Amino acid sequence: WLGGGSRHSGGKQGQGGGNEQLKFTTSDSCDRIKDEFQLLQARYHSLKLECDKLASEKSEMQRHYMHKQAEIVKRLNGICAQVLPYLPQGHQQQVLGAIERAEQVTAPELNSIIRQRLQLSQLWALALPLTPLAGTGLLLLSALGSQAHLSKEDKNGPTTRSERSKT
User: Fold this and answer.
1) I need a labelling partner for 40 at 20 to 30 A (CA). Which of 32, 56, 119, 161 fits?
2) What whole-number distance in Å separates Cα of residue 133 and Cα of residue 141?
3) Residue at 142 is within a domain
4) Of the candidates 36, 31, 25, the residue with the CA atom closest to the CA atom of residue 1
5) Running DSSP on this structure, what letter comes out for residue 79?
């Protein structure tokens, strides 16, 4: 406070000056608080817009993901339908039963299965140099093979004849 020295002299002018200084400081502080509030409000508004934009992008990505999943399901059903007649009768019944069970799997169950498969494949990758291949499950091997095939396809580009002819 600049008016503090005048207060010690005991004059009225010094005390009045101190009050004016106090009023100025309070008014100035209120203006600064108001400015900061407006800045925070503008920041909040921009963050809200960004959040809305990200939510919209997330929804679009989920729609795209679901579309891709539907395409994958359609292709897998086609492959199963093409291969099924070539299997022995006993295996055909097993495959049909597996397809029926697969059609009844819910999204949370599927996520749980995927997590388990990833954990198994990671354990398998760690144990591979130590143990022989005998005794492993066909499903685990097919999962590992499909992962390897997908990574190979990503590196090498399209693998079907129709995809090669397009490039």
Assistant:
1) 56
2) 10
3) yes
4) 25
5) H
**pTM over 0.90, yes/no:** no
Structurally, the chain folds into a number of domains equal to 1
Cβ atoms of 144 and 124 within 8 Å: the answer is yes
**Pairwise CA distance, residues 137 & 126, whole Å:** 16
Report d(CA 167, CA 163) in Å as an integer: 7
User: How far is it, in rounded angstroms, from Cα 49 to Cα 63?
Assistant: 21
Report the alpha-carbon distance of residue 152 to residue 146 in Å, rounded. 10
Alpha-carbon span 42 to 50, nearest angstrom? 12
Tell me the pLDDT tens digit for each residue of 76-124: 999 999 999 999 998 999 999 998 988 888 888 888 988 998 888 888 7
Q: What residues make up the domain containing 149?
A: 106-156
Quick check: helix, strand or coil at residue 149? helix
Task: Phi first, then psi: give them for residue 39, nearest 5 degrees.
Answer: -65, -45
Flag whether 125 is in a domain: yes
Encoded tokens for 34: 């108001």
